[in-house]
Design brief:
Elements lengths: L13 E3 L3 E3 L9 E3 L12 E8 L11 H15 L6 E4 L5 E4 L5 E8 L3 H4 L10 H4 L15 E7 L5 E8 L5 H15 L40 H4 L6 E7 L1 H8 L4 H4 L4 H17 L6 E9 L17 E9 H6 L2 H13 L3 H13 L10 E6 L17 E3 L7 E8 L5 E9 L1 H15 L21
Parallel strand pairs: 7-8, 11-13, 13-15
Antiparallel strand pairs: 1-7, 2-7, 3-6, 4-9, 4-14, 5-6, 8-9, 10-16, 11-12, 15-16
Length: about 475
């Protein structure tokens, strides 16, 4: 059976209280702390949203108010993560720093007239009511001089709630904000302190003195758009859809690989190669034009870098591979898989250092956007583990895609099937072609009832 249509703004009414500032519940240092050279690059100077959907817990209903619980928990956690309560400043050479003023983060309390069960799969990307459960507070969306976090708790009539978070990406990444929420949840549960103490140490991911570029970094090349990429990918004229990949679809795609790649290819490599190829075919790029794939790879755990446990700054670098569009579209899928593997393998300690140095040498540029497809993997972030007392969220992740970026998120269907949801934005005609190519890859007809074990989410679109 197909799921009911997702709530539109007319079907989901949210009543919001006046926004307020939450300051740390205790005294905190007032100091200026420099961000790393990974943090303050142009490509991370934007706000990134997250949504967590919590079901009703009968033991909590009527006894605890989720808005009050979360608000108090955040205030306690800000004592440990006090830079998040400050404001970013920009200094010479566009260098960013946090003035730890203790002013606080923005908090909005709200109520919605629906229960979680009515939302069904509409909570997944692209979430059509994201702007209702994570409202924009006027004057709060800048990078410099604005609150670093905006949090909205929307109570649902079933007793559950939606936790919406908007993060200034320059201060942290998804792993960092999850660590902060985890600390808040632990303090709510009576812990005397977070089990993972926060670590600043942003100097670990700053440029060497003097900076020196030792690797190739096509992700920051100055490329002239001769193929109309900017016009083709106009963010104001894009279809927004999500695709769910269960182990069944992954197995179908794997059948397209040569024998020597079957056992050596991860799900990430397989999906990324498949999506990049389908997307390139769908955009009808000239065969001789160069297309890019930029994999966002974390520097955590890289030998020699010394990123400590508890570090909550940005740690990802772009690993970019190139191909002529004609080669990518016409050669077997294994060609694309090999390029994805190459991107992952190039991220050594020296590559990370070189990436940071080129950012500083070039003045903190944004990544190249011409015919680029940026992929980030959030399946192991662990938002689904953050429990404020109501249990684990049924979904935790981003509400949608960005024009050039797809972020993989983990999801478990109501039937218990686990898989990966991938949101993507493309022009409408290209989206139709993309879907056709994906059907060929997965040997599945996309759009039928109960497809992929999730009722019709694969073809929900937002123009």
């Amino acid at each position: 059976m197909a799921s009911p249509p997702p709530p539109s703004l007319g079907l989901l009414t949210v009543n919001r209280h006046k926004p307020e500032l939450i300051s740390p519940s205790g005294a905190t240092p007032h100091e200026l702390k420099l961000l790393s050279d990974v943090d303050d690059q142009e490509g991370l100077r934007f706000q990134v949203p997250f949504l967590l959907f919590y079901p009703n817990n009968p033991s909590m209903k009527g006894r605890e108010d989720p808005a009050r619980v979360v608000k108090e928990a955040l205030a306690e956690a800000l004592v440990y993560y006090y830079p998040l309560a400050g404001r970013i400043q920009e200094g010479p050479n566009r260098k960013l720093a946090v003035d730890c003023t203790g002013e606080g983060i923005l908090f909005v309390e709200a109520d919605a007239d629906v229960g979680l069960e009515e939302l069904c799969d509409s909570m997944l990307p692209s979430c059509g009511f994201a702007d209702e459960v994570l409202c924009d507070v006027a004057g709060s969306g800048g990078i410099v001089g604005c609150p670093l976090l905006l949090v909205q708790v929307t109570r649902l009539k079933c007793g559950g709630f939606i936790l919406g978070i908007r993060l200034n990406h320059a201060i942290s990444d998804s792993l960092g904000v999850k660590q902060f929420l985890e600390a808040a949840a632990e303090l709510t549960g009576g812990a005397p302190a977070p089990s993972r103490p926060p670590v600043w140490q942003r100097e670990i991911l700053c440029a060497r003195d003097p900076p020196r570029v030792t690797c190739m970094h096509p992700e920051f090349e100055d490329v002239v758009d001769t193929g109309g990429a900017a016009m083709t990918l106009d963010p104001n004229n894009m279809a927004h859809r999500s695709f769910f990949f269960s182990p069944r679809e992954v197995a179908s795609i794997k059948k397209l690989l040569p024998h020597h790649l079957v056992s050596k290819s991860s799900t990430y490599e397989l999906l990324t190669a498949c999506l990049w190829k389908c997307r390139t075919i769908a955009l009808e790029i000239e065969p001789e034009d160069v297309v890019r794939l930029s994999c966002m790879i974390s520097a955590r755990g890289k030998r020699g870098l010394g990123v400590p446990h508890g570090y909550y700054g940005n740690t990802t670098v772009f690993a970019t591979v190139l191909s002529k569009a004609g080669h990518l579209c016409n050669r077997p899928l294994g060609y694309a898989v090999e390029l994805v593997k190459k991107a992952k393998e190039m991220v050594s300690e020296e590559y990370v250092r070189s990436s940071i140095d080129v950012l500083v040498i070039k003045g903190r540029p944004k990544y190249t956007t011409v015919w680029n497809y940026v992929v980030a993997d959030m399946t192991k972030v662990g938002f689904e583990e953050v429990d404020f007392g109501w249990g684990k969220p049924v979904y935790g992740g981003i509400p949608g895609a960005f024009p050039l970026i797809s972020i993989y998120v983990k999801y478990k269907t109501r039937k218990g099937e686990e898989g990966i949801v991938v949101p993507i934005m493309l022009p409408e005609r290209a989206m139709q072609r993309f879907q056709q190519e994906l059907e060929k890859m997965t040997d599945e007809e996309i759009g039928g009832d109960d497809h992929y074990g999730v009722d019709s989410i694969s073809v929900r679109s937002k123009l």
